[in-house]
Design brief:
By secondary structure, the chain is mostly helical. 46% of the residues lie in helices and 0% in strands. The protein is built from two helices and no strands. The model has no long low-confidence stretch (mean pLDDT 81).
């Protein structure tokens, strides 16, 4: 049986999140509220257009 783990608990998620937050903090002149951010990925342009209207 494979143990189910939330994506936000994986080492990859934690590393990528840390790298993004460091880059934003290093390159921003404004106060950044990271909780307002969203990042999603898809390889299907129709899904992207439907979800994000762009």
């Amino acid at each position: 049986m494979v143990k189910q783990i939330a994506p936000s608990q994986t080492p990859t998620y934690k590393r990528v999140r840390k790298e993004i937050m460091e880059w934003v903090n290093d390159h921003s002149d404004l106060v950044v509220i990271n909780d307002n951010w969203y990042c999603g990925m898809t390889n299907n342009p129709e899904i992207r257009k439907a979800a994000h209207k762009s």
